[in-house]
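Reviewer 2 asked us to include a model.

Predict the structure of this chain.
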Amino acid sequence: MAENNSNVNDTGAKNPAFDIIRLYVKDLSLETPNTPDIFRKEWKPETKLDIDVKHRSIDEPNHVYEVVLRITATVAIGEDTAFLAEVNQAGIFHIENFPDNQLNHMLNAFIPGILFPYARELISDLSNRASFPPLNLAPINFDAIYAQRLQQAQQAQAPAEEK
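Predicted model (structure tokens):
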């Protein structure tokens, strides 16, 4: 009797596998350095976002990775910082049988897209709890950011190869 292994496709190659094991907040902070004086100013804020993605293998034989999406939102009125919120939203993921380029895309674009709504909600909640209007971040296209970074890396590598 033949075994039915659902992890192997018709060509004998192993099928890709992706699972979310756990989502969690790794770090969370809020600073309001100019309160209460900032509350007397007209609310015309300027927002600066800093976004970073880090990942690491945490269980190599089982293809388990931790991915951390860090978003730092700095909201200022003129020269004065109203608040600075930083969220490190993380997750543990099982990712197996993907080619290296697809694995890299998943770790740097696909998974951050999964983590972003959680980080976005935390930033909105933090700003509201600090007595500021909720900061509702616009959606972010992590695929476009990833493609842009790949293109920049290729352009930086091209002149180096010509030497």
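Confidence is low (pLDDT under 50) at residues 1-5. The longest strand covers residues 80-96. We have added this to the supplementary material.
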